[in-house]
Automatic annotation (TrEMBL):
Its biological purpose: C-type cytochrome. Part of the cbb3-type cytochrome c oxidase complex. FixP subunit is required for transferring electrons from donor cytochrome c via its heme groups to FixO subunit. From there, electrons are shuttled to the catalytic binuclear center of FixN subunit where oxygen reduction takes place. The complex also functions as a proton pump.
Source species of the chain: Chelatococcus albus
Protein name from the UniProt record: Cbb3-type cytochrome c oxidase subunit
Localization annotation: Cell inner membrane
Domain of life: Bacteria
Upper lineage: Bacteria, Pseudomonadati, Pseudomonadota, Alphaproteobacteria, Hyphomicrobiales
């Protein structure tokens, strides 16, 4: 549709909607014409003000890159310096308590109310920044231990937790936790029927229901020959190896038959980072105390 048409006096002019009396843009869809209404005055003035604001911002704040630097702005202020100043002020205000925390042992921190409160306050954000992506608020997830309960793969005492936090689990640190569960099925050590029988036996010692046709006796033999070396003859686990207690009701990867078969067939070996080279010693102390006091820490 043409934008203009001949008017009655022979001049070209915009099309005018007969109902509203407003000129149209010349566009039409399904017989509906687009009116050429002007923008509201308040909107235009707001738009002009934002342009003026942006120009003022360019003048007073750092904004334009140069060849080797950038425009400093009349205020010579930027957010990085502000953050650095705030962190320096925080460090100064915390200084005395940080020194006390650094010099105190883990046991002394927990036995001193003032230090314990400070350590937990310092440990909580450290946990949120570094540990929560896997452990959540402490309750864990599938494959990530619950730190609120009293079930610990490697021990729940202060020194146990500190070692795990500092050096990690299967993280390439020679001082870290190293044990892992072999892939008995995938690597051809145990045939599939024996893997399934062992899974049925594990469920039986945990007090879980087994299939009516399950060969528990066969599973017990497979377990004794392949699994007891780490989990113990009664399946109670071994903290020195990080082997879990198979008789309780706490399961890291699930207690259903399929999950247990999967673990025996492909093995298990989750990794926890070693934080010794990422966090300072005082923060690691605070983090250790925070985890220990979540609810499941051992004396």
């Amino acid at each position: 549709m043409a934008y203009e048409k001949m008017t009655q006096d022979g001049h070209h002019g915009p099309q005018v909607d007969a109902v509203s009396g407003v000129a149209t843009t010349g566009h039409a869809w399904d017989g509906i014409k687009e009116l050429n209404n002007p923008l509201p005055r308040w909107w235009l003035w707001t738009f002009y003000l934002t342009i003026l604001w942006s120009i003022a911002y360019w003048v007073v704040y750092p904004s334009w890159p140069l060849v080797t630097s950038y425009t400093k702005g009349l205020f010579a202020w930027h957010s990085r310096e502000a953050v650095e100043q705030d962190l320096a002020a925080l460090k100064t205000s915390r200084g005395a308590m940080m020194d006390k925390l650094a010099k105190a042992s883990l046991a002394e921190i927990e036995s001193t109310p003032e230090l314990l409160t400070f350590a937990r306050a310092l440990g909580k954000p450290a946990f949120g920044d570094n540990c929560a992506p896997c452990h959540g608020a402490g309750g864990g997830a599938h494959g990530y231990p619950n730190l609120n309960d009293d079930d610990w793969l490697w021990g729940g005492k202060l020194d146990d937790i500190a070692l795990t936090v500092r050096h990690g689990i299967r993280a390439g640190d020679a001082e870290g936790r190293q044990g892992s569960m072999p892939a008995f099925g995938r690597d051809g050590m145990i045939p599939r029927p024996d893997v399934e029988a062992a899974a049925d036996y594990v469920r039986s010692i945990a007090g879980l229901a087994v299939q009516p046709k399950a060969d528990v006796a066969r599973g017990a033999k497979v377990f004794a020959e392949n699994c007891a070396a780490c989990h113990g003859e009664a399946g109670k686990g071994n903290r020195d190896l990080g082997a879990p207690d198979l008789t309780d009701k706490i399961w890291l990867y699930g207690s259903d038959r399929a999950a247990i078969i999967e673990g025996i067939w492909n093995g298990r070996g989750g990794v926890m980072p070693a934080w010794a080279n990422r966090l300072d010693d005082t923060t690691i102390k605070a983090l250790t105390v925070y985890v220990h006091t979540l609810g499941g820490g051992e004396k």
